[in-house]
Amino acid sequence: MRKSYLFTSESVSEGHPDKVCDRISDTLLDLFLTHDPYARGAVETMATTDRVIICGEARLPETITKAMMEDAVRRCIKDIGYMQKGFDWQTVDIQNHIHKQSSDIARGVDESETKEEGAGDQGIIFGYATNELDGTEYMPATLYFAHNILKELSRLRRSGEVKWLRPDAKSQVTLRYENGRPVGVDTVVVSTQHTEEVPYETIRAKAREVVQKILPAGWIVPEEKFYVNPTGRFVIGGPDGDTGLTGRKIIVDTYGGAVAHGGGAFSGKDPTKVDRSAAYATRYLAKNIVAAGLADKAMIQIAYAIGVAKPVAVYLDTFGTCKVDEDKLEKLLPEVMDLSPRGIRTHLQLNRPIYVPTSGYGHFGRTPDVEGAFPWEKTDLVDVLKKAF
User: Fold this and answer.
1) Residue 105: other Cβ atoms inside 10 A
2) C-beta of residue 188 within 8 angstroms of C-beta of residue 174
3) Alpha-carbon span 26 to 253, nearest angstrom
4) What is the DSSP string of 122-183?
5) CA 255 to CA 94: how far, in whole Å?
6) pTM over 0.90
7) Backbone angles phi, psi at 326, to 5 degrees
8) First-last CA distance in the chain
9) Of the N and C termini of the chain, which has fewer Cβ atoms inside 10 Å?
10) Which of 261, 252, 317 is nearest to 289 (CA)?
11) Burial class (CB in 10 A: 0-12, 13-18, 19+), 55
């Protein structure tokens, strides 16, 4: 392990064009699951100036109509905050090209009298947890702070405390590491959409206030390494400023580049798709390993074949931090949790409309709430894991 280095992660707000698309895709998925917990969907969205295109494949109850989908999309855009020239929830043109799921895919996934439900596709999936800095929910500190800077800007905008803020925003945090642990901040970048009349000095001062609120006490960003709206102007934003697509922010959604990624996106996919459900399962297992004190870091990889229920391989890497027998711990994982698609869905109760909150500010490092969102963030396997050793 290198002793001294800089590491960087970025985040984007719920008003970023790609995140608008993730939110729309998950809004439609939650609509499907509200009507039928076993509905299937893989919804893709594109958003650009005055236009939203939704497509993909689904297996839905007849109660869901195209008018219902369009209404859900408009309400989603309104909630994000887009009522600007070039992208307005009331006037945006919505095209719906969602079609039925392929029967060839369905036959590989569906359970029958002779076959257990299989994975919806082949793929490799990674989950990760780290205790590198207390208070960051077992997440890389760089990503945790980047997310929270934007969440605070969103709070200020939605509450009306700062009236010149607009929905589109990005952040980037670079920390200094010593012996694998963050010890201070090196550079911060904040770009936020704003109204035309607000002075740059006002934007910079508010961004500084937000950043210092989020960072640990004593971590001061040097003025020469604090970049706010570096181009000098960010009035045109959202899908009017840049075309958005579902699934283009997979590193923001996961671990900020701290570990490997299998390449699969999450939003719009029902939980038979292991790209999504197994990513939640691997995070759940990794977080419980670290929370149990069995390792300081844990990365888990699972591999699947389409139509096959059990994973073809399970791999654990604790980066030399494991405090127990690592091979034994790796073999224990499929015993403490059924890693078949059905087993994951049942254990984490994923056949529910809980996905809209995941579409902004990351799928991990969040607090499980009373409505059932983020169940993979629970640490209810800690005692089981500890007892095994």
Assistant:
1) 18
2) yes
3) 13
4) -EEEEEEEE-SSTTSTTS-HHHHHHHHHHHHHHHHHHHTSSTTEEEEEEEEEEEEEETTEEE
5) 33
6) yes
7) -65, -40
8) 27
9) N
10) 317
11) middle
Lookup result for tokens 């939003």: 267
Structure tokens at 351: 């056949």
**Two structure tokens written together for 322:** 């494991």
State the Cα–Cα distance between residues 258 and 359, nearest whole angstrom: 20
DSSP string, 197-246: TS-HHHHHHHHHHHHHHHSPTT-PPPGGGEEESTTS---S-GGGTS-EET
pLDDT tens digits for range 314-362: 999 999 999 999 999 999 999 999 999 999 999 999 999 999 999 999 9
The angle formed by the CA atoms of residues 40, 12 and 379, to the nearest 5 degrees, is 60
Tokens representing 107 are 């036959």
* Site of tokens 């970023």: 16
Q: What's the angle, vertex CA 372, arms to CA 368 and CA 378, rounded to 5?
A: 35
Placement of tokens 């929910």 in the chain? 137
Convert the pLDDT of each residue in 230-262 to its tens digit. Answer: 999 999 999 999 999 999 999 999 999 999 999
Distance, CA of 355 to CA of 33 (rounded, Å): 10
